[in-house]
């Protein structure tokens, strides 16, 4: 059989809240390994219908300002606290990777499959970072649906933000959370 340590890791995998992360983030070499692993996902037609944008250093603050401006422009009563919180959101971890779903027109491959492939990139990146010893969390939030944020990340019409993967070092070990029982979410065979 295969390597049981991988299965054991997956059975105990737990995200760390971005607000509970600190430095260091992955080195340039480790980051390349994580990105390489993340792009080895199911991809019907070999279309690579996704893009990854690595945000470190000042780029995190720059995107935060764009996000805060976009959200404030839509708010009925913008507040200083909400603006500051939105502007600082990408500073919670030393490395944030935006994963864009970039579906391409194709006569046989549905758009939904391409979106799912981008989701697989998010999950693989999250798992790869955690298996390398880093804390990681997959987030979206209101900013993931802001056109200005998508544009700043290089997205174009038809693209979507699949998620932001925050990567850093855990300030404290995450606590376990409730999971659904298999009886609630798994069905064997067809329903009569």
Radius of gyration over C-alpha positions, nearest whole angstrom: 18 Å
In the predicted model, the low-confidence regions spanning at least 5 consecutive residues are: none
Structural class: alpha+beta
CATH superfamily of the domain at 14-56 and 89-173: NADH Oxidase
Biggest sheet overview: 5 strands, antiparallel
Using the coordinates above, name the CATH class of the domain at 14-56 and 89-173: Alpha Beta
- The shape is globular
Q: List how many beta strands DSSP finds.
A: 5
Question: The CATH topology of the domain at 14-56 and 89-173, please?
Answer: NADH Oxidase
Verbal overview:
The chain has 192 residues and is an alpha+beta fold. It has a domain at 14-56 and 89-173: 3-Layer(aba) Sandwich (NADH Oxidase). The chain contains seven helices and five strands. Strands 1, 2, 3, 4 and 5 form a five-stranded antiparallel beta sheet that branches. α3 runs antiparallel to α4 (80-88). It is globular.
What key phrases describe this protein's structure?
single chain, about 190 residues, alpha+beta, NADH Oxidase, five-stranded antiparallel beta sheet, 7 helices, globular
Q: Could you outline the blueprint of secondary structure elements for this entry?
A:
Elements: H1 4-12, E1 21-22, H2 28-38, E2 50-56, H3 58-74, H4 80-88, E3 95-101, H5 111-131, E4 135-139, H6 147-152, E5 160-170, H7 182-185
Antiparallel strand pairs: 1-5, 2-3, 3-5, 4-5
């Amino acid at each position: 059989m295969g390597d049981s340590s991988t299965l054991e890791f997956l059975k105990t995998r737990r995200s760390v809240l971005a607000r509970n992360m600190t430095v260091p983030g992955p080195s340039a070499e480790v980051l390349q390994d994580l990105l390489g692993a993340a792009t080895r996902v199911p991809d019907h037609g070999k279309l690579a219908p996704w893009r990854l944008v690595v945000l470190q250093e000042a780029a995190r603050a720059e995107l935060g300002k764009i996000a805060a401006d976009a959200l404030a422009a839509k708010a009925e009563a913008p507040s200083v606290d909400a603006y500051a919180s939105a502007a600082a959101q990408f500073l919670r971890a030393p490395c944030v990777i935006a994963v864009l779903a970039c579906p391409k027109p194709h006569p046989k491959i549905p758009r939904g499959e391409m979106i799912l492939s981008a989701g697989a990139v998010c999950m693989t990146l999250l798992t790869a970072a955690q298996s390398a010893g880093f804390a990681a969390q997959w987030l979206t939030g209101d900013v993931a649906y802001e056109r200005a944020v998508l544009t700043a990340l290089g997205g174009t019409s038809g693209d979507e933000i699949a998620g932001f993967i925050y990567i850093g070092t855990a300030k404290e070990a995450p606590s376990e959370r409730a999971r659904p029982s298999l009886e609630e979410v798994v069905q064997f065979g067809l329903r009569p």
